[in-house]
Design a protein that fits this description.
By secondary structure, this protein is of the alpha+beta class. It contains three helices and three strands, in the order βαβαβα.
């Protein structure tokens, strides 16, 4: 069983949390990484705080997750 996670999306906290919720509704587990918080804790500054959250999913769920993310992005424009 492959449990490795891969980065699939980067965006604001609102976008990433919304997508994580959408993925959860489809039984896709995800991890949200907050690079901004990690940088502050480490004493660094980030130039663009709007792109500090990363969404990761298991390798086996990438294709299904990409479809959900693409639908979200196409409806958002």
């Amino acid at each position: 069983m492959d449990t490795k996670y891969v980065h699939i999306f980067t965006g604001s906290m609102i976008e990433v949390n919304r997508l994580a919720s959408d993925l959860s509704e489809e039984d896709i587990k995800s991890i949200v990484e907050d690079e901004g918080k990690s940088a502050v804790l480490a004493g660094f500054a980030l130039p663009n705080l709007s792109l500090t959250h990363r969404l990761l999913v298991k390798k086996k769920d990438v294709k299904k997750a990409e479809t959900i993310i693409n639908n979200y992005l196409s409806n958002d424009s």
